[in-house]
Amino acid sequence: MFSKGLRPLGRAFLSASCIIPLVGCACVPDYPETLLSDPVVLKHPSVVAAFEQLQRNLSSLYTNTTRDGLSIAVVHASSATPAFTFNNGTLKNNETSLQSADSNIVTSDSIFRIISVSKNIAMTSALVVENLLKNTTGSSGINLDSPVRLLLPNFRLPEKDWNDGGSEITLRMLASHTAGITRECYSTGFDMIMNTDKAYTSTIGAEWARASVEMVIETLAGTNLMFAPGHRAAYSNAGVALFGAAVATHYNKVTAANLSWSQIATQKIFDPLSMTHSFFGTIPQDLVPRISVPGSENWANLIVGTGYDPAAGMWSSSADLAKYLYNVWLQPNPTLITPFQRRQVLKPAYSFPDGRQQVGPGWEIILYTLSTSLDASVTNSTKTYNIFGKSGDGGGWHSWVDVIPNLGYGIVVLSQQAGQTSYTSIPVTQIRNAIHDILVPAFSEALARRMEERFGGTYAHAQDTGLTVDQVPNPAPNASTYARLEVQNQVLYLRELVVNGTSALEAVDRLSWAADAKPRYFSTPDGVALEPAEGAGETAQFGEGTQVWRIMIPGLEICDWFDFDGYKDEKRWPLSKIVLVERDGSTQLYYPPFDVVIKRT
C-alpha cells in the first residue's frame, strides 16, 4: 500500500478491510445522541489504546522515511479541545538553513492550503446565512433547496439545458456536484495536434487565480451541462464557485451589504469560531511565520481569485479546523446553524453504482462497515457508518476533514510535500483511511460499554405513578414487576419487562393475535432491540435526562422501519416505546401504558 522505503505502520494501518460493500448486514441501531458527547468514552481502554497506537504508527513515519509536514487532530463531541493531536515535519521547505530550528517544525497552528476543503465551508456558509437572515429579518429567502436563479438573477445556461431542468438547479445540487455543471469555468486551450498548453501546477493555478465571479457566470452561460441536473454526480469546481456567488448575492441584496463571499465566510464563520489562522486571499503579514511551504512545485504564492475562493481558496490550520468540526458538526447543540439544518446536510444526495460511495452537500461520503460481534459463531452482526468527509489536493498540499456523527468524532489531516528525493511522501488518503481503521472499532467498543454502564442491568423497586389507575402496588414486589436490559454486539436489548407478573412485551404481541395465529414478535427469549427515538416532544414530556427508545424486532437482516405507533394507550403514548430517565444519580425505566416506573438496582 505504501511506497518503497516507508516503514510499516502496523496491522491496523495496513488494513482497509472494514470498508466493504453493503451486503448481508444485520440491523444494528445507532447509539443515542446522549452517548455521543459523553466524555467518559474517551477514557475507555479501547480509545486510550487507539490513541497510543496512532502515536506510535504516525511517529514511525518520521524515522528516516519522510520529511513531509503533517498535522492531525482527532475531535470528540465532548470537548472543543482535540482529544488527540500529532504534528511533525518541516514547515518551510524553502528555508533550508532553518530546517533544524524549532521554529521550522509543523505545529497544530501551522497553516496549510486546504484547497477543496473550502467547498465544505462554502456549503456551511449557506446554512449560516439562512440562519442569520431568519433571525434578523424573520424570513431568510434562502436554503439549500432554493433554485439558483432566484438567488442569482444573472445565472444562465444554454437554452436546451435551461429548459431540461437547468432553471431548477438548486444550491443542494451545486454543493453535492449533481447539477451537471462542468468541472471548471475555463479551458486549458489544449491543442492535441500541436501538443500545447499542458495542465501543470503552474498553469492550472494561474487559471484559478484569474477566475472572477463574473467570469464563472459568463462562462457557464455558454457551456453545455455534462448531464441532466440531479441525474448523476461529477466533481465541479465551477459549480461550487457558482454556489458561493449565489449565497453572496442574496446576502448582499437582503442586507444592503457589498461583501464578497470570502468576506462573508470570514465574518460569519471564522470570526465567531475564533478561527484566527484561517483566511482567503493574500497572506496576512502576522501569519507569515505560520505558513507551510512545500518543497516541490507549489502554490505558496498563488492568490486564488474571488470566483474560486468557495471552491479552493482557503488556508487553515488543524487547530482551527478542529474548532470548526466541533462547533458545527459534533457538539450536541451546534454553533452558527440549527440542529435541523445539521441533520438535513448529513445525508446523501446521490449514491454511486459501486455501493460504497455517496455524495451529499459539501461531503464525500464513504460507507464503513464494521463487525460488531465478539462471538465468532454469530454471523452478519455488522454496523455501517457514514464517514462524511471532504478532501483537498493541489499545489503541494493534501488535506482531509471527516466526521462520523454516529460515533461522535471527527478528524483533520493536513500535509505538505517536502519534495525530497531521498524520502517518501506521505499517502494522505491512505493515512486517513487507516486512522479510521483504528478509531472506528475503538469508539464503537467504548460506546457499547458506556451504554451498558448507563442503561444496562436489572430494574426493580417499581412504583405506580398514578397517572391512570393503580396498576402496581406501592411498594411493588420485585418478583412481580421488573425489567432486564443488556448490551450484546453493540445493541441494547430489553430482555424482559414484567408488570404484576404479566409480560408487557407479550401484551403488545397479543394485539395482533387471532384464534388461529399467535405470532411472537416481541415476547421472544431474546426480548427486543432498542433503537433511540429522539423526538423533541416525547423527550420533553419526561424532563431532563430522558432517552426515549423504540422497541424493534431483533436480529433482522434488513432494518424494520415500520413502527407500531398506531398502537397507543388512552393518553396517546405508543405501546412500542419505553423511556429511560437518568436523574439524581439513578436510572429509571418508564413504561407509560402500564403507568409504571422501575428503578435500576
Key traits:
single chain; 601 residues; alpha+beta; Beta-lactamase; 2 domains; eight-stranded antiparallel sheet; 20 strands
Polypeptide structure, described:
By secondary structure, the chain is α+β, with helices and mostly antiparallel strands. It has two domains: 336 residues, Beta-lactamase; 145 residues, no CATH class. Helix content is 28%, strand content 20%. The chain has an eight-stranded antiparallel sheet, sandwiched between helices. Strand 7 and strand 8 form a beta hairpin.
Topology:
Layout lengths: L10 H4 L18 H4 L8 H16 L8 E8 L7 E5 L23 E4 L2 H20 L10 H4 L7 H5 L7 H5 L25 H9 L3 H9 L15 H19 L5 H10 L8 E2 L28 H4 L1 E3 L1 H13 L8 H7 L4 E2 L5 E4 L2 E9 L10 E13 L2 E8 L4 E8 L11 H28 L1 E8 L17 E7 L2 E9 L2 E2 H7 L17 E6 L2 H5 L5 E7 L24 E7 L2 E6 L4 E5 L1
Antiparallel strand pairs: 1-2, 1-11, 3-5, 4-5, 6-7, 7-8, 8-9, 9-10, 10-11, 12-13, 12-20, 13-14, 14-15, 14-16, 16-17, 17-18, 18-19, 19-20
The CATH superfamily label of the largest domain reads DD-peptidase/beta-lactamase superfamily
Task: Give start-end ranges of low-pLDDT stretches.
Answer: 1-25
- Shape descriptor: globular
CATH topological fold name of the largest domain: Beta-lactamase
Number of strands: 20
Given the structure, what is the number of helices?
A: 17
What is the rounded Rg?
A: 27 Å
- Domains counted in the coordinates: how many? 2
Structural class: alpha+beta
* CATH architecture term of the largest domain: 3-Layer(aba) Sandwich
**Span of the ends, CA to CA:** 52 Å
